[in-house]
Design goal:
With 258 residues, this protein is α+β, with helices and mostly antiparallel strands. The chain is 33% helix and 28% strand. Strands 4-3-5-6-7-8-9-10 form an 8-stranded mixed sheet, with helices on both faces. It binds D-MYO-inositol-1-phosphate and calcium ion (2 copies).
Amino acid sequence: MLPATINIFEKAAKKAGRILARDFGEIENLQIKSKSVGDFVTSADLKVEESLLETLQYYYPNANYLTEESGSIKGGGETIVIDPIDGTSNFIHGIPHVAIVIGKIVNDEITDGVIFNPILNEFYWASKGKGAWCNNKRIRVSKRQYLTDCLIGTGAPFGKRIYSNYYKELENISRLTAGVRRFGAASLDLAYVSSGKIDGFWEKDLNLWDVCSGVLLVKEAGGRISESDGNNWTTKSRDILVSNTLVHQKLLENLTLL
Ligand code: IPD
Ligand code: CA
Ligand code: CA
């Protein structure tokens, strides 16, 4: 049986997912606005977020909400974090690698999270102490221990988020591993580490809504989370490195000793 919170998050994500999937089929009719270079919002982002808030506020009328498109909504107690479409650029380009993200934070600790790709119908969830799951199957991080066998995900910075050391980081990790992947939705990158598809992932300057559910998934799947310089990751962090635990130290060394 699903934990009660996950049940509600699933209901919200699957309802909003129908809107997202419908709009994905009609991309040419979408209104697209640019917030800054490489940062877009479409009418689908707004409709999906509205639908998520409608369902979630019915069940959690008094919670705080932190959302990408509507900002913060003040309440009390727990905080529900929402990214209506993670991977908006993929969405606009007709690439079906997108997800709806909903997470719950209590006293600065992530207790529940879902990541739902309504196009491929992949529903990832994790709840504190209850493991990480995808469509009713328990998922775990990979067991690869040599970087030479590993695929490592990253988020290449764009626009004003570019930082020059990135290309050195990329070179180091590319040289030592079986390859680097840039899929374009940070939440799914973390879900992919959790399910052992890729063995690690790093990106800088992310928002809490990109990573909150994925951090819990990685933890519950047996992986390790830190900032990309090795400091502890907290809900205030903007930089992240996650891995299957086994290769964490080696990735850190190659991201920091530049
Ligand atoms: C973005 C995606 C992307 C990452 C960006 C995020 P959005 O989220 O997660 O993979 O590289 O940093 O902003 O804008 O599509 O919700
Ligand atoms: Ca996002
Ligand atoms: Ca988004």
